[in-house]
Design goal:
The protein is an alpha/beta fold and 349 residues long. The protein has helices spanning 3-14, 49-63, 72-76, 81-88, 105-118, 130-143, 145-159, 169-184, 188-198, 201-213, 224-235, 254-266, 283-303, 309-315, 328-334, and strands at residues 18-25, 39-45, 98-104, 242-247, 271-277. The protein has a 5-stranded mixed β-sheet, sandwiched between helices. The radius of gyration is 21 Å and the shape is globular.
């Protein structure tokens, strides 16, 4: 399908709006340092329902599994490697019509912690700060693997809404950990960040007090909501408006959907609405589900030094430049190259 044909097909299916379908993989709620996954992936596809149904059927025909519902794991099995490469390939069905927003969970914790305690805002930074990057990239090398793990876990506990410990414990543990790391590793950019964090106790106490008064509408440590906003920004980069169709999620309450839409409007993003569907009823969401699970696995493998060069290269054109990623080595392989950082194929010619 040519680029112009793709634009026409989408225009016919969605009126004045492009419609992109979304799903996620790797959600562990606010437990970002002790969950089952170290990467969160939010994927979206911008093709018609009819085309998506045909592609899903072709995947079923190629894999020939008796499973009623196919998931990313079907494509990730070695015996189905050819199907996986076909799906992601430049000549494949979704290339140029799909997008992935990645979140490296450990870095997300650091970025949100630094944003909350050191920035003038409330932690919802538009992009990673220099302080967060400096601290994260020093990490285990500067503080030792055990010290760094303790910092990440204490920061996670400080920011998460649901916490089973006594009210003052998350603050106490976090600042005790910060103090120990600062004393053990004087000097350098990371030590200066720790020194600033050590002086921010009043902000941390205020944050925890606000949580006791009532849980926030948008938890700082849940990556889904900001990922949806960034997804909308990607699809509207060419000036068109977008409506998002998303798999049903407990996190996506009417109030939070309103927050997403209001945030998009405030940021100048042409989001025309967000509606929820069951993935089984929309083949576009099924494709987004496949892509999210595939992307999470490939990105996690690359993050942990066991990446498959072929699969990483195939994923790279889909990865959004606004992904939240701190590891420099793996991002050099996953992040979009200049040639890949183009507008969606559905934008007007």
């Amino acid at each position: 399908m040519s680029r112009n044909e793709a634009v026409e097909e989408r225009a016919e299916g969605a009126g004045a709006f492009l419609e992109a379908a979304c799903d996620e993989s790797g959600s562990d709620g606010e437990n970002l340092t002790g969950g089952n996954t170290d990467v969160f992936a939010h994927a979206s596809v911008g093709i018609s329902v009819e085309s998506a149904a045909a592609y899903v059927q072709e995947i079923r025909d190629r894999i020939r599994s008796p499973a009623e519902e196919y998931k990313a794991n079907h494509l990730l099995r070695e015996k189905h490697r050819a199907v996986l490469e076909w799906l992601l390939a430049p000549s494949g069905p979704i290339h140029g019509h799909a997008h992935v927003h990645l979140t490296e969970k450990a870095f997300f914790v650091v970025d949100r912690t630094v944003g909350l305690l050191l920035d003038e805002g409330n932690g919802e930074s538009k992009g990673a700060s220099d302080e967060a990057v400096a601290l994260f990239r020093a990490g285990a090398r500067a503080f030792g693997s055990e010290g760094w793990r303790e910092f990440l876990e204490s920061a996670n506990q400080l920011l998460r809404v649901r916490n089973d410990s006594a009210p003052g414990v998350p603050v106490e543990v976090f600042f005790r950990t910060v103090g120990a790391l600062r004393d053990a590793c004087p000097g350098g950019d990371s030590a200066r960040v720790l020194e600033r964090l050590a002086q921010s106790r009043s902000r941390a106490e205020s944050y925890r007090a606000q949580i006791l008064d009532g849980p926030p509408l948008v938890p700082l440590l849940n990556p889904l909501l900001p990922a949806i906003v960034r997804t909308a920004a990607y699809w509207t980069a060419g000036g068109q408006s977008v409506r998002l169709v998303h798999d049903r999620q407990n996190m996506l309450t009417p109030e939070r959907i309103a927050w997403i839409e209001e945030t998009a409007r405030r940021d100048g993003i042409g989001l025309g609405g967000l509606r929820l569907v069951h993935s089984r009823l929309d083949p576009r969401v099924q494709l987004a589900d496949f892509l999210a699970g595939i992307a999470r696995r490939i990105a996690s493998d690359e993050l942990n030094g066991r990446g498959d060069p072929v699969l990483t290269a195939l994923l790279r054109p889909y990865v959004g430049a606004t992904s939240v990623w701190g590891d420099e080595r793996s991002w050099a392989r996953l992040g979009p190259a200049a040639a890949d950082a183009v507008l969606p194929a559905l934008s007007e010619p």
